[in-house]
Design a protein that fits this description.
There is one protein chain. Helix content is 27%, strand content 18%. The chain starts with 11 loop residues before the first helix and ends in a 5-residue tail after the last strand. The longest helix is centred in the N-terminal third of the chain and has 21 residues. The radius of gyration is 24 Å and the shape is globular. By secondary structure, it is an alpha+beta fold. It has a five-stranded mixed sheet with strand order 1-19-15-16-12. The protein has a five-stranded mixed sheet with strand order 3-6-7-10-11. A three-stranded mixed sheet has the order 17-2-18, with no helix packed on it.
């Protein structure tokens, strides 16, 4: 059903729904199933948000806007304005129809309209649990480590890590591309463009690679894309290319988000850990809490590794081993540090509670959040500085032992 050419003037809920529909039209009219795959919300929740019957929950409204390239801050402002207006003025009610015959006719028309809508709207997507956490609860990234082993040269290793002079959070368009497939997402057989002899057997053997035509092909600077399948596998693709709607990868790995953070086949990081290990998701930012360990890279890795890593791509120099653990000392009173921006505070608390693991070689010390996410207190930039966290004074380096 086409949207009206003019927004309703008297009802804030209907006006907000009209604006959502207009945004979707301006984005090319993606289906609600496509929008659900991009955001983690169900297609039925997104569809209901635009019907104007009631003000949708904030997280649904923001997911709708993000799926249509809307600005999160602007749409949160609009939602809050509609909610404030709704609280001060009762919603407009339809006139009471007195005549019984008119009521019957209205019911017949309503049923016909409902049947027509159901015939043309896609069914809701599978109700997957899009938890802020990946992997099992006993995985190293989901455990607190209250007694890590402090490295004897921790202070010098921290100095090495901070030698480049900056620490950043990759977010927005610099974040990790994570797509969530549904049972209706088309699936393809993929053979990596580089595998046999050079990098080992095909890691995607026997694993379907889901790809929705509405998903954007990763730009060259975002070399990795991750697709989470409906059964919980994580298909991790390096240098994704899409030709005639079919995806291909140069190399990659397959992990199981229901199990260990160690990749099942292939290798997506030098440490052998999944690309999803330690990624800060949109759900984390929305929850206002990061309930898992983070991951980072360092340019100073050697060729050795420690738990939970199962490999290393280091150049066999430097003090750092892949899999090493860092944390912020509890002596640092994060809540009392008024210099921290909201996203810095969340990162600092996660580093105190869960720590972070070294998973790869990298050009600089940095953490990563999901592509398209906008951490609180940022303006949407791709690289958010973490300069207010007192890394030099309170950062510690060590190792952890496997759970007994």
């Amino acid at each position: 059903m086409a949207a009206a050419s003019q927004p309703p003037s008297g009802d804030p809920v209907e006006r907000f729904a009209f604006e959502l529909r207009a945004l979707r039209n301006s984005a090319g009219g993606p289906t609600y199933r496509q929008m659900a795959a991009r955001t983690g919300q169900s297609s039925s929740a997104l569809s209901n948000a635009a019907k104007g019957r009631q003000l949708p929950p904030l997280e649904v409204a923001l997911a709708y806007a993000e799926a249509c390239a809307g600005d999160r801050t602007e749409w949160e402002r609009r939602w809050r304005a509609a909610k404030a207006e709704l609280s001060t003025a009762p919603r407009r009610r339809w006139p009471v129809v007195a005549a019984a015959g008119t009521v019957g006719l209205a019911l017949v028309v309503a049923v016909a309209v409902l049947v027509s809508r159901l015939a043309h709207e896609p069914p809701p997507s599978d109700a997957a649990d899009h938890s802020p956490r990946f992997f099992s609860n006993d995985d190293a990234f989901n455990q607190r480590h209250p007694r890590p082993y402090l490295s004897p040269d921790s202070a010098q290793m921290v100095a090495d890590l901070l030698a480049l002079g900056r620490v950043e959070l990759y977010t927005g368009k610099a974040g990790s591309l994570v797509y969530r497939a549904t049972s209706s997402t088309p699936t393809y057989e993929v053979t990596p463009r580089k595998h046999v002899e050079q990098w080992g057997p095909n890691p995607f053997e026997g694993v379907g690679f889901p790809w929705d035509a509405s998903w954007k092909e990763p730009p060259p600077e975002r070399q990795w894309a991750v697709v989470i399948t409906p059964d919980g596998r994580s298909v991790e693709c390096w240098r994704t290319e899409v030709q005639d709607g079919r995806p291909s990868c140069e190399w990659g790995a397959v992990s199981d988000t229901r199990g260990s953070s160690v990749s099942v086949t292939g290798q997506a990081t030098g440490s052998g850990l999944s690309r999803l290990a330690g990624v800060i998701t949109r759900a984390d930012w929305k929850a206002g809490r990061i309930d898992h360990a983070l991951s980072f890279g360092t340019p100073d890795n050697n060729g050795q590794y420690v738990f939970p890593a199962v490999g290393s791509d280091g150049p066999e120099q430097g003090r750092w081993r892949e899999g090493q653990f860092i944390w912020l000392d509890r002596a640092y009173d994060v809540d009392a540090d008024t210099s921290l921006k909201p996203y810095e505070r969340l990162v600092a608390k996660a580093l105190q509670e869960y720590g972070a693991f070294n998973v790869k070689n990298a050009g600089e010390f940095s953490f990563t959040s999901e592509y398209g996410s906008k951490p609180p207190g940022t303006n949407g930039d791709a690289y958010a500085p973490l300069t207010h966290i007192k890394f030099a004074k309170y950062l510690r380096v060590g190792t952890i032992a496997p759970a007994s």
